[in-house]
Amino acid sequence: YAPTRCAAAQTSTEQGILPPCHHHETVHDPQLVPCTCPLFSCPWEGHLEVVVSHLRQTHRINILQGAEIVFLATDMHLPAPTDWIIMHSCLGHQFLLVLRKQEKYEGHPQFFATMMLIGTPTQADNFTYRLELNRNQRRLKWEATPRSVLECVDSVISDGDCLVLNTSLAQLFSDNGSLAIGIAITTSKVHSAEAEM
């Protein structure tokens, strides 16, 4: 299990208003990307190759290693909006798991979980991620292609292209206010087969 301190969580009272989607901002150098950390409104811009070091040094986001890990998000009862994030390193790449508690409809908070590759959309197409919740003889799996951090996490969540849990479903899988999410990343079979040809 990932220790609690590996999960960076911040509530709405700490972060103020969520930062706007970076897709609508003008970027002078097309090779520069804005900060991908959804927890802070951070003005940093840099090349994709230095995003990981920025997240680790500036935002103190830790990296978990291995193809299969378990991420433990604590304090699920915190008010919305709240984000939990962790970096996951495997298969020679780094991924960013974002778990967000947000009210899509007033008075009805939901949990949204997605995996973002710290890389290009073309690179992201080479991977598949699986999120799994498993507790009290219940199992729930979500499997998809990760999105690139060059895309806006807000749009991924608003599109619903992620694991979505309502509060009662999240409670079925939580243990004393903590949610354990199994994460597995593999290379896409389609792209692996194309590479062999």
UniProtKB/TrEMBL annotation:
UniProt keyword list: Metal-binding, Ubl conjugation pathway, Zinc, Zinc-finger
Entry keyword annotation includes Zinc-finger: yes
Annotated Gene Ontology cellular component terms: cytoplasm
MF terms in GO: ubiquitin conjugating enzyme binding; ubiquitin protein ligase activity; zinc ion binding
Pfam families: Sina_TRAF, Sina_ZnF
E.C. number(s) listed in UniProt: 2.3.2.27
Pathway(s) this gene product operates in, as recorded in its UniProt entry: Protein modification; protein ubiquitination
Similarity comment: Belongs to the SINA (Seven in absentia) family.
Protein name: E3 ubiquitin-protein ligase
Species assigned in the record: Ramphastos sulfuratus
Organism taxonomic ancestry: Eukaryota, Metazoa, Chordata, Craniata, Vertebrata
